[in-house]
Write a structure and sequence with these properties.
CATH architecture: Alpha-Beta Barrel
Number of helices: 9
Structural class: alpha/beta
Shape: globular
CATH superfamily: Aldolase class I
Amino acid sequence: MHIVTLGKQHTIKNNWTVIAGPCSAEDRTQIIDIAKELSHLKVDVLRAGLWKPRTHIDSWQGVGEQGLEWMQEARKETGIAIATEVKDEKTLEATLRANLDILWIGSRNGQNYALLEAVGKMTSHTKIPIILKRNMGADLDDWLGAAEYIAKYNPNVILCERGIKGFPRETRNVLDLQIAKLAQYAGFPVIIDVSHAAGRRDLITPMALAVKAAGFNGLMVEVHQNPDSALSDSKQQINTSDFKILSDKLALVPNQI
């Protein structure tokens, strides 16, 4: 079993871990405020995208490197661990200079082997946790094979199921907990990103409860102070009040890990 340290004390091996925050960092105030709220709710890791790989070039691409300073300040004020996505070697280098606690590789880069190997090599000395999201069309062998490109150099890899492309139009993706469980059986910690799987906020709570009940290692969920005004993926984010309700419900579900 891979042991992945989150922050200074928390390990994903034996604990239920919650990673939450906005789809995208939009400004300093937003990040500081959400960090305070989520820290108060005992969230382990603050997530926020700074560089946004988007389907269309004219879509908003994120705030970029300036957001790293906001994330660092949020950690300093609250003690919460911080995580963001890297999309290429340039953003990887910037994120490593900023000393974030966790990096993640998004679905679009889930089989970008050159980037995956670079991430492994460049974190081989620190062994910081790397979250690898499942490519939207990857089967189990594809997913585990991609993880090997990182784990060869840095074994601290967390797999993240975020849904795959499927026939239903009612949800953004199909949440595939069966393959995610097989990936967990293969020896990797596995967390579930319910926001990208559902693409709609009314499914976040029931899917999150199912994730914990099924014995996965953690949850990633997008939380925004005012989701309807979010600059990206507004429909799949919940507000902090609804996240508080979700947290209370999750506390009633026994930890199956």
